[in-house]
Amino acid sequence: MPRRSIWKGSFVDAFLLRMKKERESLLSRKIWSRRSSISPEFVDCSVRIYNGKTPVRCKITEGKVGHKFGEFASTRKRRPSRTNIEPGRKGKK
């Protein structure tokens, strides 16, 4: 089920539309537009997607076409589970 109406088409920022023709410049290009859709022209390119702090390197494959760039650059830090940190305090009150 598409998220956007079919008559509108997928959203891609204007600068990315210009960069489609020049694939070589995409290899070292940082992408700030996390909301843009990945089109088939980007397949086999390696781009750096900004996650709010640093750019994250991402290789575009055929399976990623149709998704958004932001889906592949996590903005949250992963923290370890806090279970079993202090096993000695279990019986104390």
UniProtKB/TrEMBL annotation:
Signal peptide: none annotated. InterPro entries: Ribosomal_uS19, Ribosomal_uS19_CS, Ribosomal_uS19_SF. Coiled coil: none annotated. One of its GO terms (biological process) is translation. Pfam families: Ribosomal_S19. The keyword Ribonucleoprotein applies. PROSITE patterns: RIBOSOMAL_S19. Keywords: Mitochondrion, Ribonucleoprotein, Ribosomal protein. One of its GO terms (cellular component) is mitochondrial small ribosomal subunit. Transmembrane segments: none annotated. One of its GO terms (molecular function) is RNA binding. Residues 72-93 are annotated as: Disordered. It comes from the Eukaryota. Belongs to the universal ribosomal protein uS19 family. This is Ribosomal protein S19. The lineage of its organism: Eukaryota, Viridiplantae, Streptophyta, Embryophyta, Tracheophyta. The gene is rps19.
